[in-house]
Amino acid sequence: MAPNLSSLFLADATSAEPVQIISPKSEVLSYQPAYQAPKKPVTKSKEPQYKWDIVWKNVLIFILLHTAAVYGLYLMFTRAMWQTNVFAILYAAFTAMGVTAGAHRLWAHRTYKAKTPLRIFLMILQSAALQNDIHEWVRDHRVHHKFTDTDADPHNSNRGFFFSHIGWLMVKKHPMVISKGKTVDMSDIEADPVVQFQKRHYILMVTLLTFMIPAHIPWYFWGENWWVTWYVTIARYTLSLNFTWLVNSAAHIWGTKPFDKNINPTENKFVAVAAFGEGWHNFHHVFPWDYKAAELGNYRMNFSTAFLDFMAYIGQAYDLKTVSEAMVKRRVKRTGDGTWEEKECSGKKEERGHDHEYGEYVWGWGDKDMKEDDVNDVMRYNQLKDE
Question: What PANTHER family would the database entry show (predicted)?
Answer without folding.
Answer: ACYL-COA DESATURASE, RE43130P
